[in-house]
Amino acid sequence: MALNSIHWFRKGLRLHDNPALREAVQGAATVRCVYFLDPWFAGSSNVGVNRWRFLLQCLEDLDASLRKLNSRLFVIRGQPANVFPRLFKEWKISRLTFEYDSEPFGKERDAAIKKLAMEAGVEVIVKISHTLYDLDKIIELNGGQPPLTYKRFQTLISRLDPPEMPVEMLTDTLMGRCVTPVSEDHGDKYGVPSLEELGFDTEGLPSAVWPGGETEALTRIERHLERKAWVANFERPRMNANSLLASPTGLSPYLRFGCLSCRLFYFKLTDLYRKVKKNSSPPLSLYGQLLWREFFYTAATNNPRFDKMEGNPICVRIPWDKNPEALAKWAEAKTGFPWIDAIMTQLRQEGWIHHLARHAVACFLTRGDLWISWEEGMKVFEELLLDADWSVNAGSWMWLSCSSFFQQFFHCYCPVGFGRRTDPNGDFIRRYLPVLRGFPAKFIYDPWNAPESVQAAAKCIIGVHYPKPMVHHAEASRLNIERMKQIYQQLSRYRGLGVFFSSKQEVLCDGITCSSLMSVTCSSSVQFYLYNSPLKLLYIQRFGDSGEEKPQSGKRVREGRLSERAVGLVEEDKGPRHEHNQRWCLSRV
Amino acid sequence: MKRGLQGNEQEDGGGTSGGCQKTLKRSRKQRREKDLEDEESRWECLPQEILLHIFQYLPLLDRAFASQVCRGWNETFHMPELWRCFEFELNQPASSYLKATHPDLIKQIIKRHSDHLQYVSFKVDSSRESAEAACDILSQLVNCSLKTLGLISTARPSFMEMPKSHFISALTVVFVNSKSLSSLKIDDTPVDDPSLKVLVANNSDTLKLLKMSSCPHVSPAGILCVADQCHGLRELALNYHLLSDELLIALSSEKHVHLEHLRIDVVSENPGQQFHTIKKSSWDAMMRHSPKFNLVMYFFLYEDEFGPFFRDEIPVTHLYFGRSVSKDVLGRVGLNCPRLVELVVCANGLRPLDEELIRIAQRCTQLSAIGLGECEVSCSAFVEFVKMCGDRLTQLSIMEEVLVPDHRYGLDDIHWEVSKHLGRVWFPDMMPTW
């Protein structure tokens, strides 16, 4: 019986490092690569023109690459759950392959499709290639919970085997005898639509600053590595005015859509580092961009409410303000703060902004100035930002608004000062807000402070040609830091005077041996993990502040899983006046 | 329940109590039914004090459910002890994501429990209606003898958007009727000098805590009146424009108790604003009178407005710079703030703060918490700083971008050095980059 297979593209829009695609081709008589044009992108229809264009360019590129292998891309309008049964029958499918999607919505959708396939007698093969690691393994290693600090995440990663090598690009040889039946009217039935067909008005649309597709991605990664090698410096580059502009070596949108394999990037970085630094071991910081992405995927994979405040176990409930007018001003770059407005303009026009620019506008919207919910900001980014997928976008917004991940809230980005320090001359502002071009560097970040003569000379009167600032920043930040303090003081039940809140410290205890004690100094509660420890009973002792040797009180940890791994959460005693900095000691009994 | 059963079984086994004899005579089935009856009636007869004690552990909603069980439990639910503390949450769906306290519950509280209330707070969202609702409730608390009152705006300060007279009259009701107010939080409200006079006239013996940051209608004379009369005042929070030499002298008078916390917000209204100075002698008087007091100062100024500050020694303990502050000012901080416990700098600039930090480590021997945002410090200087402070640094919150690698340390190894000197594992704070 002939094996006919379908490879289902969702992300992973590439032919290189695509193990699921290879499974589709392996020993198959025919293969068809499908993409469902599902207006419900990752569960929401909130997608702007730049993202659609990028996606369509990715699909065109895939189609072109497949043509070289005498195949084609099949773009199918509709929902997978509705269409697959028909396709299984029509094409006599016996194998379905796709890349694993770790997001909760994706997992649910895929479970439903797997069921459909099973009923139709179709074998389903799923491969992990959108992330460096198997995320479930990371979670397992952390006692069943995703790590909530980046440092904890890095510690766990360093204990795992390195990521799997990327697999070869799909070639004629690999295709072997496998063919794709293509009909005469393929273009009409299954062709990649244009932006106009999707209902966008493309008149006057500037050309894409970030062209989509695997070909572009692979060119970029070579450029990216060339530049790194030339600099011979793998440190994080210092921020300057140029960093704010879109770079021809930028890779984040390509990673998001899967035009570029993260594993390929990982291994190319490793190789280059070893070559330049003569075989020394690369530090984790080399992979920063990739690991942050991985961190958020891990945090989100088992949490369907990851993108919400209500009902999200890791999100702090903050009494954000509902203010649609203020939100609109922020989204439409009409805040009256040139730094913020220029960034939001670049975002809307091009679909990418530098990560520090993201911090600036996110802080301004949430805990810095407007006190509007991060969920609103997340939705705007989802519409406009090319590299914002569900996990990374939601996670970053929670992080930047100090709603999760134990992020300290005291450092606030000033909408005037931060920009001025980054780009003192103000070229970035002039580029994206031409109306302010006439202002000298001295006033371009706070034009409302410019004397009338300067405004007149610049042909831009504040309040007429450009809005007045929508908030008084000093007052807003004073208010907001007070709000954040109120919330965190309630949470950690400590009536402190300062702005620091005591975060749970995640502590890794590595196989406590019989005689060794480990002393950990930290604040309020300690979450700890024991690995490969033959302990039967664990006793937590707490020392008083005067540093005496004898423990004062103890708490028995939950038993049960102690033979292999123990996860314990010890809450501090609710004494009348507990101090910071209790010394905790873990020991065997 | 189990205990009851076990007890009976033991008695059956060979007990000697009188009740047991009766039990032995019945059939097994009858015995079991009686046991169940006994258990039910046991719950009904639970002494009220015990039930009250249990109720105090339950959240309000669970308590309310419990109160529906029987008359006895309903009575206990309404005992005064359970209505001493209440937090009214006033939110409008149009302006907040959070739920409000149910209006029926509010009505009930006012009807049945207003004279039991002692510790009350109002949390309002940014809508005027919520602020007005809070004041309406306040106006009805005529039989209250409040000890604590907190008016907390959780978003924009909506108390400032309602008619001032409405607010003042509601607040006055509380001041006049309570006569034993101990803690008062009225930040960001239109409270004024006359209402403070009313407060003082009725509560001067009991007032211990007064937080009134950002109350623009109060003048230095108004707050001076409070300091003069309320000798038990231990905690005070206000804006810098209300601070005066006279105020500090009044707070250090012999009749006054030791002040514990003084929180001052220094906020710039317009660029280039001039701020008055406080004499060193006034701070000295405060120190003599209350040697252990905490002075918390939050600065939200433009860089060039720091002229009058940190010229002389000042006993500040917690210092927060919410906007950019210059190297020069941080240098002065190192020289003039020997009591400094916590320092937070949101932003400085692109010149390294090496010398300033070292000086702070040397001179601020009580420093235990430091936070640095957009600043720059060379890795070597930072390690030196941590070495000098040692493990007294319990909070070290440094953004990753602050640390500038140099010939001695790179970013990847600095955290080991720092961890060594701190005596615990330390990493800088990170922000996601993707």
From TrEMBL, chain A:
Query: Start and end of every Photolyase/cryptochrome alpha/beta domain?
Result: 3-132
GO BP terms in the entry: circadian regulation of gene expression; entrainment of circadian clock by photoperiod; negative regulation of DNA-templated transcription
Where in the cell is the protein located? Cytoplasm; Nucleus
InterPro entries reported for this sequence: Crypto/Photolyase_FAD-like_sf, Crypto/Photolyase_N_sf, Cryptochr/Photolyase_FAD-bd, Cryptochrome/DNA_photolyase_1, DNA_photolyase_N, Rossmann-like_a/b/a_fold
Record keywords: Biological rhythms, Chromophore, Cytoplasm, FAD, Flavoprotein, Nucleotide-binding, Nucleus, Photoreceptor protein, Receptor, Repressor, Sensory transduction, Transcription, Transcription regulation
GO MF, one example = FAD binding
- Its principal location? cytoplasm
**Annotated positions binding FAD:** Q289, L290, L291, W292, R293, E294, F295, F296, D387, A388, D389
| Free-text comment on the cofactor | Binds 1 FAD per subunit.
UniProt-annotated site: Electron transfer via tryptophanyl radical, residues: W320, W374, W397
Keyword Transcription regulation attached = yes
A Pfam family the protein falls into: FAD_binding_7
Q: Which PROSITE patterns match?
A: PHR_CRY_ALPHA_BETA
Cross-referenced Gene3D superfamilies, in alphabetical order?
1.25.40.80, DNA Cyclobutane Dipyrimidine Photolyase, subunit A, domain 3, HUPs
Q: GO CC terms on record?
A: cytoplasm; nucleus
Q: Which cofactor does it need?
A: (6R)-5,10-methylene-5,6,7,8-tetrahydrofolate; FAD
Q: Name the SUPFAM superfamilies on file.
A: Cryptochrome/photolyase FAD-binding domain, Cryptochrome/photolyase, N-terminal domain
In the record, the note on similarity to other proteins reads: Belongs to the DNA photolyase class-1 family.
Q: Would you tell me the protein name for this molecule?
A: Photolyase/cryptochrome alpha/beta domain-containing protein
Q: Identify the species of origin.
A: Oreochromis aureus
Automatic annotation (TrEMBL), chain B:
Superkingdom as given in the UniProt entry: Eukaryota
The chain positions of domain F-box read 40-86
Q: Which Pfam families does this chain map to?
A: F-box-like (PF12937)
Intracellular or extracellular location(s): Cytoplasm; Nucleus
Q: In which pathway does it act?
A: Protein modification; protein ubiquitination
**Stored InterPro entries:** F-box-like_dom_sf (IPR036047), F-box_dom (IPR001810), LRR_dom_sf (IPR032675)
Q: Name one GO cellular component term.
A: nucleus
List this protein's GO terms for biological process.
regulation of circadian rhythm; rhythmic process
- Keyword annotations of the record: Biological rhythms, Cytoplasm, Leucine-rich repeat, Nucleus, Repeat, Ubl conjugation pathway
- Region called Disordered, residue ranges: 1-33
Q: State the coiled-coil residue ranges.
A: none
What is the designated name of this protein? F-box domain-containing protein
Natural source organism: Oreochromis aureus
Upper lineage: Eukaryota, Metazoa, Chordata, Craniata, Vertebrata
